Amino acid sequence: MAVHDNHPAYVARVLHHTPGRLRLRLPREALDARDTSPLTDALTGLRGVLQVRVARPASSLLVRYDPASVRLEDLMAALHRAGLHVITTAPDTAASPPGEPTALSRLIDRLAGQMDARVERATGHLLDLRTLVPLGLGALALREVLAGRLQAAPWYVLLWWSFDSYLKLRRRGPGEPGAPADQS
């Protein structure tokens, strides 16, 4: 890892920091270079650094240090000199404003949407997940009834989930095809 014209060669992200422990996410390119010794040497050269460990499979760098002997700013400066620019916050992990979907919910929506589209294509647009999930829960309820397991009564719970999920999953948002007309 080399620094060219005083500019770091790689950018890393802080994954976790508590006084005495710092974990960074390193880019794969930085780890593909066989020699990570400039990073480890830069840190172990600081008084107060107790351990530096590079975890290639996790693409991370762990630094254990004595916060009474070395400051976080000193660690960052040493990493910068070794060719690593560290950013402390990720723009995509910033808190969502109230009412806005989180990054995780957007990911789940995208993946579920892709799966729904595949099911629709595979069935010639006859079925979608909004129909299959309630049907599946209804089939599980029917199986419990036919198996004679009425005493434990999970069938009625599954039947209720089937009905409830059907109603909720079939609900369309404003502007979507099939959405109810505005009654105002």
Key structural traits:
184 residues, alpha+beta, Alpha-Beta Plaits, 2 domains, 17% strand, elongated
What does this structure look like?
It contains six helices and five strands. The protein has 184 residues and is of the alpha+beta class. The chain has two domains: 10-91, Alpha-Beta Plaits (2-Layer Sandwich), CATH 3.30.70; 103-169, no CATH class. A five-stranded mixed sheet has the order 3-4-2-1-5, covered by helices on one side. α5 runs antiparallel to α6. The longest helix is centred in the middle third of the chain and has 20 residues, at 103-122. Residues 1-7 and 90-94 have low confidence and may be disordered.
User: What is the helix tally?
Assistant: 6
Characterize the main sheet: 5 strands, mixed
Compute the number of structural domains: 2
* Strand-pairing-aware structural class: alpha+beta
Strand content: 15-25%
Q: Based on DSSP secondary structure assignment, what is the total number of beta strands?
A: 5
